[in-house]
Amino acid sequence: MSANLSALEQHLGTRSYVEGYTPSQADVHVYKAIAAPVPSTCPHVARWYSHITSYSAEFDTLPGSSTAGQTFTQTASAEGSAPAAAEEEEEIDLFGEDEEEDAEAERIKAERVAAYNVKKANKPKTIAKSVVTLEVKPWDDETDMKALEDSVRSIDMEGLVWGASKLVAIGYGIKKLQITLVVVDELISLDDLQEKIAEFEDYIQSTDIAAMQKL
């Protein structure tokens, strides 16, 4: 066998097709470049050749391109010429072996898919967080705003981090507390948080969400 036909024989020893798991233009390209191979010399090529022959009516519609098959066609066309008539008529169970190799290819494919799914399942999940600007209004200008803020910050919940704050004038000498917080969306309900803040009724009249942005 020439180097290229030898490479084709070795290649098809572990595969059913020149490229992929179904017949393609790569198979058509190589098929047209060689003569019927000698089964005793190139058993794998002969099996493949007989199998691809069954698709001859579909050659023009098979997917893919001939690029993958060019490696085997430069000198392979001179090899594998038809043997004597007696050898040509020899009956060989080509498709039984082909079915076994197809099953092996499907098994390998299934193993790879399973491994990918395991890897995907073990990938760390992204934790969704939000930055929230909360406004807390006191009852009047006599409310102790430091005590109000200390009360708000005393709320400790999993997934809640208090940030910077400032007092913002709203008129008549009254100032509201504007405070930033970061929450883990799955763990913190802003409605529940506002209800907890409202429990400090000696200082707090109401709360509002002034802004919210996903991280």
Automatic annotation (TrEMBL):
Q: Which PROSITE patterns match?
A: EF1BD_1, EF1BD_2
Segments forming domain Elongation factor 1 beta central acidic region eukaryote: 94-120
- InterPro entries referenced in this protein's UniProt entry, alphabetically: eEF-1beta-like_sf, EF-1_beta_acid_region_euk, EF1B_bsu/dsu, EF1B_bsu/dsu_GNE, Glutathione-S-Trfase_C_sf, Transl_elong_EF1B/ribsomal_bS6, Transl_elong_EF1B_B/D_CS
Alphabetic keyword roster: Elongation factor, Protein biosynthesis
Report biased composition (Low complexity) as residue ranges.
Answer: 76-85
What GO terms fall under cellular component here? Answer: cytosol; eukaryotic translation elongation factor 1 complex
Where in the sequence does UniProt note compositional bias of the Polar residues kind? Answer: 66-75
Region annotation Disordered: residue ranges? 66-86
Q: Does the keyword Hydrolase apply?
A: no
One GO molecular-function entry: translation elongation factor activity
Q: What is this protein called?
A: Elongation factor 1-beta
Native organism: Boletus reticuloceps
